[in-house]
Write a structure and sequence with these properties.
Layout (H helix, E strand, L loop, with lengths): L2 H34 L4 H4 L3 H24 L3 H18 L1 H5 L1 H28 L9
């Protein structure tokens, strides 16, 4: 794999980890902001989590796919897919079904889980030898 494609793949993983981190910060900070500034409470009802899924999921899928293509470590998918599913559930149904605490809990757990998957993906891809199917 050339240096350019490695940098692109690493940039996607870094972007995905950053988005997961932003999600984490958002979930932790928003309740305090809303409590301190009551006029923001109307904004907090919007589905920011559902909107973020349109960015987080495609970036994560591409980054994990590119890394997996290089290292073939299924652990990345074994951690990444549950993380994405937790984010999807937290960002779509959890709030309506179980309330705000469940929404935040599923989203936080999903963001941390997905960030771990991207961390492993980056480490594995940078340390692995490129796969050569013709050598088999």
């Amino acid at each position: 794999m050339n240096d350019s494609s490695r940098k692109s793949r690493n940039a996607l993983d870094v972007t995905a980890v950053t988005l997961s981190g932003l999600c984490l910060v958002h979930c932790l900070a928003l309740p305090f902001i809303v409590a301190g500034l009551p006029f923001l409470s109307t904004v907090s009802g919007d589905h920011f989590h559902a909107e973020m899924l349109w960015i987080v999921l495609p970036v994560s899928l591409v980054a994990l796919s590119l890394g997996f293509h290089k290292h073939h470590n299924v652990l990345v998918w074994g951690i990444g897919v549950p993380g994405m599913l937790l984010l999807i559930f937290g960002g779509t149904y959890a709030h309506d079904l179980y309330g705000l605490a469940a929404d935040r809990s599923f989203t936080l757990l999903g963001a941390v889980t997905l960030a771990v998957a991207h961390f492993i993906n980056t480490r594995q891809a940078s340390c692995s030898v490129p796969h050569n199917p013709q050598a088999s």
